[in-house]
Amino acid sequence: MSILFTILAFIVALGVLITFHEFGHYLVARWCGVKVLRFSIGFGQPLFKKNLGKDQTEWVVAALPLGGYVKMLDEREEEVPPEDLARAFNRQSVSKRFAIVAAGPLANFLLAILLYWLLFISGVSGIKPMLGPIKPSTPAAMAAFQEGETIVKIENEPVATWQDARWVLLSHAVDRNPEVMVETITERGEIFWRKMNLSHMHADDLDAHFLEKIGLAVYQPFMSPVVGKVMASSAGERAGLMAGDEILSIDHKEVERWEELVTIIRAHPGQPLILEILRDGKIMEIPITPDSANEGNTEIGRIGIAPKIDHEVLNKLHVNVSYPPGVALLKAFDKTWEMTIFTLRMLGKMVMGEVSLKNVSGPITIADYAGQSAQMGIIAYLGFLALISISLGVLNLLPIPVLDGGHLMYYVIEIIKGSPLSEKTMAIGQQIGIAMLFTLMVFAIYNDIYRLISG
After folding, report:
1. Three-class SS string for 159-206?
2. How far apart are CA 272 and CA 252, in angstroms?
3. In which element (H, E) is residue 383 found?
4. Phi and psi of 214, rounded to 5°?
5. How far is C-alpha 165 from the chain's CA centre?
6. Catalytic one among 22, 149, 183, 276?
7. Count of alpha carbons within 13 angstroms of residue 411, beta-carbon side
8. What's the pLDDT score for residue 359?
9. Residue 155 known to be catalytic
10. Distance between alpha carbon 209 and the CA centroid of its chain, in Å?
11. What is the full DSSP assignment across 110-143?
């Protein structure tokens, strides 16, 4: 994937999320009669600006796309003409100010609902949650899961794809649930209930390799060692391999599955090997030296060939789940609510030290995910946007000065005490909030860099 494509996908994602967030503030401010001076996507030098509307609001696209803002008429920031005093933000009732500030995060949740609704209508594709080999001495092994079973329900919640199964299991693992009931069905139609204990999961286990750590793996259909494609300028092409070649042995070791071939090649980077192949009914030997490649901190061998795939078998493992518009809307609300609650629970567990802070991601990781999802197609990219929109909404509701949630906290205090907080108190709060956000950003970027270095 090109860096340019990743950056473009990241910028588009930021633009969509920020525009919706700020438009929430803008729209409710206008409904409340507040005069909006500027609507800016990004910070710094304006790349585009135009004055529009009765109030001649300045619409700006700026050079640094890491945020945005809506500037409203406010006596605390500049002198306001007498005829516009009633339209100043600071002159509004606390209920109107609360609504204007809360509208930004609310817009992000509404965007997530819209995106999930579109996804559920168009159909969400995925891999059927059929189990591959069960890793020994893991929660899955202790629950007696068997290879070839398909997960149907988890705690009476239906699951159709591996993505669904991972999400539900992860939500139970966060709570360290000692008894998670999983319903499975075999290829012969036999139904089993497996009781999985997730109470011993460590904070560091709740990461991208979560399923592997509880002992579950995606089922891989049998693939014979037959070459389906040879990449240009690869070791395979240089050695003379052709599509249709059946590899019988490698260095006189018989291979029956494609995975066995891959394992041996990966273990011999830059080392000469002998392939025994069957081509057009004739057995022949071909010398080959795998190219060296880095995978994280490990050097592996590659010869640039792909297996011959039985698409009929693969199609049986893929599912596409779609719903009528009304049902899809309900599912979208449920999905957004579940993800919001899960995000809040994860944040709470991080604060309590029950979930590793390594899960905090910064702009580098988010950009990487944006690029990966965009390359997978529009459906995956919309799902990524929905998830990040929820995260942005939750983050902005945290009671941290500088964020929307910090301002909402001030307004709640104002309602309780009957008067606003002093300017001095709010100024101190702003400094604390900036320090907290800076610390969080440094920590997130550190995690990003660590992930890059560790592969």
Report:
1. CCCHHHHHHHHHHHHHCCCCCEEEEEECCCCCEEEEEECCCCCCHHHC
2. 13
3. helix 378-397
4. -95, 0
5. 15
6. 22
7. 17
8. 64
9. no
10. 14
11. HHHHHHHHHHHHH-EEEE--BB-PPPTTSHHHHT
Q: What is the mean pLDDT of residues 2-9?
A: 81
C-alpha distances in Å from residue 314, one per residue of 243, 308, 317, 347: 20, 12, 5, 38
- At which residue do the structure tokens 């029956």 appear? 256
Alpha-carbon gap, residue 198 to 363, rounded angstroms: 31
pLDDT tens digits, 155-206: 888 888 888 888 888 888 887 878 899 999 988 889 999 999 888 877 666 6
What contacts 24+ positions apart, CB below 8 Å, involve 41-47? 41/15, 41/65, 41/68, 42/18, 42/66, 42/67, 42/68, 43/67, 43/68, 43/69
Q: Inform me whether the pLDDT recorded for 5 exceeds 90.
A: no
Q: Which residue has the higher pLDDT, 58 or 2?
A: 58
Residues 6+ apart with CB under 8 A from 163: 126
> Residues in the chain, how many?
455
Question: For residue 107, which phi and psi values (nearest 5 degrees)?
Answer: -60, -35
C-alpha 401/C-alpha 423 separation (Å) is 13
Render 246-288 in DSSP notation, one character per residue: EEEEETTEE--SHHHHHHHHHT-TT--EEEEEEETTEEEEEEE
